[in-house]
Amino acid sequence: MFDFLVKRLATLVPTLFFVSVLIFGLQQLLPGDPAVILAGEDRDPNVVAYLRAKLHLDEPLPIRYFYWVDGVFHGDLGESQRIQKPVLDLIVEKLPVTIELAFLAMLIALAIGIPAGIISAVKKDSLWDYGANVVALWGLSTPNFWLGILLILLFSVALGWLPASGYVSPFVDLKANLAAMIMPAFVLGNAIAAVLMRHTRSAMLQVLNADYVRTARAKGLVERTVVLKHALRNALIPVITLGALEFGTLLSGAVLTEQVFTIPGFGKLIVDAVFNRDYAVVQGVVLCTATAYISLNLFADLAYFLANPRLRG
Amino acid sequence: MTVATITADFTAAPRDDSPARRALRRLVHRRGAMFGLGCVVFFILVAILAGVLAPYDPLQTSWSAVRKAPSAAHWFGTDEIGRDVLSRVIYGARASLLAGLVSVSIALALGVPIGLVAGYVGGFTDGLISRVVDAMLACPFLILAIALAAFLGPSLTNAMIAIGISATPIFVRLTRAQVLAVKVEDYVEAARAVGNSHWRIALRHVLPNVLPPLIVQATLATAAAIIAEASLSFLGLGQQPPAPSWGSMLNTAKNYVDNAPWMAVWPGLSIFMVVLSFNLLGDGLRDALDPRHV
Q: Does A27 touch chain B (CB under 8 A)?
């Protein structure tokens, strides 16, 4: 276990280094003088001079990179030019909203994807199987911002059951919070449910043909027990770890979903930052996303390692 | 078995039974894939013939026809400044398909040679390339594309570049994995033994044998690129108004969803259909090119 962890952490160091180079490099894509662009439309010479000094723009590129990384290690991701607040504070402020959305979306995805995958595998080549595959293809092919608009049209405009936009903190009014979050969470969970369904189906099909499942059947166990107790437990190990890797899809989807439903989360923060040319915020959001993704990847690998006795030796 | 019998067995095999033809036969028997192919061809024709098929100029505004519901004059209705939605959907196919094609071409043009080098050369070069790819894959596809598009500036060209660069690591990783499997095959050893140069081995013997999974991935990546372009245009980072694009049409439509829902239905349905078609075609190609997958 310790050896595995050390090896895994050792591969993380160069990955994190290149992530930091990539994100720092984004700033170099800006045409012209970054200080002038970052200073906004006013281009106040004092602001330009301040930014030039703060970003060490007169220094060579590797030195600037070193200063930037040093800042990141000390929690300094820069300052939002528009809101005049540290980027880290903005991210910490918006992140809980997106985490709640992602959590609800994952719950919905698990509730749809895993039972659909099980039924599809158990009733292979039946109408249920075809139906589940059609639903999976629908989930993979539907742009979530379009699905969001259609749901608003149905549940907010036509039926008037749910609010079309806005966000209420769960600590203020839990019912209003869930009413506001259920549609975005479904939109976001829809695509992940399709992926989970396909993974579950494939894993279940492999497991259902395994010797120990045949033995369980030969012992005279009820089919439900064979499927849910013997097959599913083993099939779920790769599904759960692959599900963790869907975190990237969740965050990408959150950017669009939050835009459609006007939810003030992490995704909306990056979009607003893009339009206000708040480049430090864009860099900060990408850095946090990548770090979270790498960490989840590590946890998924560890979970797989712990759950699979063959890997532990 | 004598040499004569072996020769007889080979000559007795049908001449058209090459792996490519067998794959084609399997593909033709897949109804989903054929439906997908038919739809893809339909959308390509719509994009090429947009000038002939569109009943109106997609940019022509009419203040007397603002947000009109679908009718005989405007089959898909009109938008917030009286433009014909059908004409804009037809012209929008150009932006979407172009984005899919160009982005995937960029990803292939960058990803395949880099993956080939990583897999074939191995060692430090492979390690370095793999770590850079890991770093790129650590940034979720759309977030990386948004960040790139933000720094490059909003336009369809920059969106295509951003999507292409963001999709590159998948092709690097896939090509590398395939090359690692192929380069230890006997025929590659034989090519090396007869004195072929590394370039010749990589290009003439390795590359053709790693193509099938790349073709499948390219088809599926086209679907992802079309959704990504629509997403960037929806956010205002892709095709810029007034030029038509399905994503930007949906961005406008979301503001009028209560009184002009047709503005949202048709562009969204078009994205859905074209993405579904590429996904069906990709699934069918995977089954046809890799029978083990079935």
A: yes
Q: d(Cα A5, Cα A14) in Å, to the nearest integer?
A: 15
Whether A26 and chain B come into contact, CB under 8 Å, resolves to yes
**DSSP 8-state secondary structure symbol assigned to residue A171:** T
**Residue B266: which H helix or E strand, with range?**
helix B262-289
| pLDDT digit string, tens, across residues A145-165 | 999 999 999 999 999 999 998
CA dist., res. A99 & res. A134, Å (int):
29
Those of residues 107-146 in A touching chain B at CB distance below 8 A are 137-138, 140-143, 145-146
Residue pair B66/B78 in contact (Cβ under 8 Å)? The answer is: yes
SS (H, E, C) A250-290: HHHHHHHHHHHCCCCCHHHHHHHHHHCCCHHHHHHHHHHHH
Contact B250 A259 (CB under 8 A): no
**B157 vs B137: CA distance, rounded Å:** 22
Of residues B146, B151, B265, nearest to A270 (C-beta): B146
CA atoms within 13 A on the CB side of A4: 12
Considering chain B, what percentage of its residues have pLDDT values greater than 90?
A: 60
Position A309, amino acid: P
Count of residues making up chain B: 294
Greatest C-alpha distance within chain B: 86
Interface test with B, best of A23, A145, A187, A277 (most B CBs within 10 A): A145
Q: Which of A219-223, A234-238, B141-145 has the lowest mean pLDDT?
A: A234-238
Taking contacts as CB-CB distances below 8 angstroms, the residues of chain A near B153 are 31
Residues of A with Cβ-Cβ distance to B147 under 8 angstroms: 23, 26, 270, 282-283, 286
Task: State yes or no: pLDDT of B40 exceeds 90.
Answer: yes
Residues 239-268 of A with CB under 8 A from B: 247-249, 251-253, 255-256, 259-260
Chain B contact for A160 (CB, 8 A cutoff) = no
> In terms of Cα–Cα distance, which of A98, A86, A87, A69 is closest to A259?
A98
Residues 6+ apart with CB under 8 A from A178: A170
List phi, psi (to 5°) of A38.
Answer: -70, -25
Chain A residues with beta carbon closer than 8 angstroms to that of B280: 137
Q: Are A278 and A15 in contact (CB under 8 A)?
A: no
Q: Confirm if B239 and B251 have CB atoms less than 8 A apart.
A: no
* 3-state class (DSSP) for residue A108: helix
Mutation site for B-interface testing, chosen from A146, A202, A266 by largest number of B Cβ within 10 Å:
A146
Running DSSP on this structure, what letter comes out for residue B202? I
Task: Give Cβ neighbours of residue B290 (< 8 Å, ≥ 6 apart).
Answer: B212, B213, B216
Inter-chain CB proximity A145 and B237 less than 8 Å: no
**Residue B142, CB-side half-sphere exposure with 13 Å CA sphere:** 30
Q: Which residues pair with B42 in a beta bridge?
A: none
Please name the amino acid found at residue A95: L
State pLDDT tens for residues B199-253.
899 888 898 888 888 998 999 999 999 999 999 999 999 989 899 999 999 999 9
